[in-house]
Amino acid sequence: MDNLTHTLFALTLARTPLGRAGRGTTAALVIASNAPDVDVVTLSRGAASYLQWHRGPTHGPVGIVGLGFASAGAVWLWNRRRRGGTAAEPAAPFALLVAVAAIGVLLHILMDLPTSYGTRLLSPFDWHWFAVDWMPIIDVYLLIALAAGLLFGRGSEAARRRNAAIVIALMAGNYGVRAAAHHRALAEAPRVFGPTLPSPCAPTPEEEVRLIDRWPRPLPRTDAGGRRCLVEMAALPSLSPFTWRIVTRTSNSYELSTVNLLDPPAGSAPWRVNRRVPNVWTEAARRAAETHVAQIVLGFSRFPAVRSFVDPAGVTTARFSDMRFAGGLISVNQPTFRVEPFTLVVRVAADGRILSEAFGR
């Protein structure tokens, strides 16, 4: 989620019993709830370095412990400098600050998990990404509920506690609505794709449907029988809980569509407006995928697609992109916004030499 949401949620938590541990607990919650995103400092070494470490150890078990202690330590030192608390609100003990801060870090990670962007829950012990596909990165409904809960009912401690409980209940309801809508969107997908949807490929452990998706997976392959078949399907969230981007991966392409659960069934051939993106992994494309930067990009990409062409000199230009962001980063449902982030272009000579690679183009 975005940092404004994390901050507002931390302030809401400070109105629950967590905030009564003593002076400094609100600050510890706010700092800890944003601390996992400290990995942004890796941008100083370039975009590829950032992608390599993004939502890595700071979003795993080491981050929960380490950032919990770091956040608590910063607040504890500040309390000591300010000569502790008052008789009405004594300074929180260091142990309690650590516990509260660790909870803040943990909840940050758990709020990132239900997004299609995902997070690396087990890093650095396991560098796989995990995602549930319920929430967008920025959920305006969540922001409104959190902001309203903090704005109103500030007159008394009881009112603040009551509002915090109401906001947390509204958050749970929002997550529940999106979870149900996600299930419905996947159920609608076969109708949206109609006869263009191929039959499933022979299932493998990597292709089983899971509540929590996990990647990176082995590079796409062509079905052994040479036929086009369905590998997997996903419904990605948008700003509206009723509009979903459907991504279907076949053995040689991606099929992209949008389903609005509030609209009546489309006409006789809704699949005519779907978008198809070729995804053919030639030997040159596989060679391009072996570079260091390509391994970073493909490790991040949940739905990696490659488009390549060969010039008269025999040089192959392979362009890798992630179909989660086909159409743009801000909203996958706005076809006019065509800048796709997290792309990599690699040029491979006819003899297999890597001539160049450019990330972010």
Structure write-up:
The chain is α+β, with helices and mostly antiparallel strands and 361 residues long. Among the domains are: 3-131, no CATH class; 281-361, Nuclear Transport Factor 2, Chain: A, CATH 3.10.450. The protein has 9 helices and 10 strands. It has a 4-stranded antiparallel beta sheet with strand order 3-4-5-6, with helices on one face. The chain has a 4-stranded antiparallel beta sheet with strand order 7-8-9-10. It has a two-stranded antiparallel ribbon with strand order 1-2. Helix 2 (25-34) runs antiparallel to helix 4, helix 3 (47-53) crosses helix 9 and helix 4 (61-81) crosses helix 5 (94-112).
Topology of helices and strands:
Blueprint: H1 3-13, H2 25-34, H3 47-53, H4 61-81, H5 94-112, E1 129-131, H6 140-151, H7 157-193, E2 213-215, E3 230-237, E4 243-250, E5 253-260, E6 275-278, H8 283-288, H9 292-300, E7 304-310, E8 316-322, E9 344-348, E10 354-359
Antiparallel strand pairs: 1-2, 3-4, 4-5, 5-6, 7-8, 8-9, 9-10
